[in-house]
C-alpha cells in the first residue's frame, strides 16, 4: 500500500510539473508574440535614432526614411525590383527567375519594413533620389524573437563608403530597442563579398539553423547560409549553438 501511495504521489507531482511547464511555454509564446506585434506596429523606428537618419562620410551624403510593404508607391516598387535585379541576378544565376518571383511577393507584404536611403539634395541636385534600401521583418526563429534582414541593397556608386556597415549597425540598434534576441539574415554562398562583409567586418556567425550546420550533406546542396548575431544567452545558445 505504501509503495502504491508513493507512486500515486509521484504521478501527481509529475502531472503538476508538466502543467507548470506547459503554462510556462504558453506564457513565453504569448510574450514573444506580443514583442513581435509591438515591434511590427511601430510606424517608424528611426524616430528613436535621429543621429542615424543622416550619413555624411567618405564623400557621401544621404538621409533615411521608414516605409512598409503595404504602403509602397508604384515607382518605389519598381525601383526595388530593378535594384534587386541589378544586384542579385548574377549572384543567383539560373535560380534568379524563380527567386525574383518570391522577392516580388515579399517586397509588398504587410509585414515588410523598410529603411530607404536617399541622396541629400545639393546645389546641383534639387531632388533626393533613392540609392538603396533595407527590407526587414520582426519574426520568430526557433521561438526566439528576431529581426530578420531580408534585403540590404545599395546602388554601386554608394557602395564601399561605409554605408552598408552603418545601416547594419542601425538595424542592430533597432533589434535591441525592440527586445529582439538576434539579427538574422540569409546570404548566398556565391556572394563572397557579402559573406566577408558580414562575417569579418560585422562578426556574424553561421547560425545553428543554417543548412550547413543542421546537416552538412544537405548544406552542400543548398546555395545559401543563414547568419546571425545574438544579443542574449538564450538566443546565443539556440541560434548560434553556443552556451
From TrEMBL:
<protein>
    <recommendedName>
        <fullName>N-alpha-acetyltransferase 40</fullName>
        <ecNumber>2.3.1.257</ecNumber>
    </recommendedName>
</protein>
<keyword id="KW-0012">Acyltransferase</keyword>
<dbReference type="InterPro" id="IPR000182">
    <property type="entry name" value="GNAT_dom"/>
</dbReference>
<comment type="similarity">
    <text>Belongs to the acetyltransferase family. NAA40 subfamily.</text>
</comment>
<dbReference type="GO" id="GO:1990189">
    <property type="term" value="F:protein N-terminal-serine acetyltransferase activity"/>
</dbReference>
<dbReference type="GO" id="GO:0043998">
    <property type="term" value="F:histone H2A acetyltransferase activity"/>
</dbReference>
<keyword id="KW-0539">Nucleus</keyword>
<dbReference type="InterPro" id="IPR016181">
    <property type="entry name" value="Acyl_CoA_acyltransferase"/>
</dbReference>
<feature type="domain" description="N-acetyltransferase">
    <location>
        <begin position="74"/>
        <end position="238"/>
    </location>
</feature>
<dbReference type="GO" id="GO:0005634">
    <property type="term" value="C:nucleus"/>
</dbReference>
<dbReference type="InterPro" id="IPR039949">
    <property type="entry name" value="NAA40"/>
</dbReference>
<keyword id="KW-0808">Transferase</keyword>
<dbReference type="GO" id="GO:0010485">
    <property type="term" value="F:histone H4 acetyltransferase activity"/>
</dbReference>
<dbReference type="GO" id="GO:0005737">
    <property type="term" value="C:cytoplasm"/>
</dbReference>
<keyword id="KW-0963">Cytoplasm</keyword>
<dbReference type="Pfam" id="PF00583">
    <property type="entry name" value="Acetyltransf_1"/>
</dbReference>
<feature type="region of interest" description="Disordered">
    <location>
        <begin position="1"/>
        <end position="26"/>
    </location>
</feature>
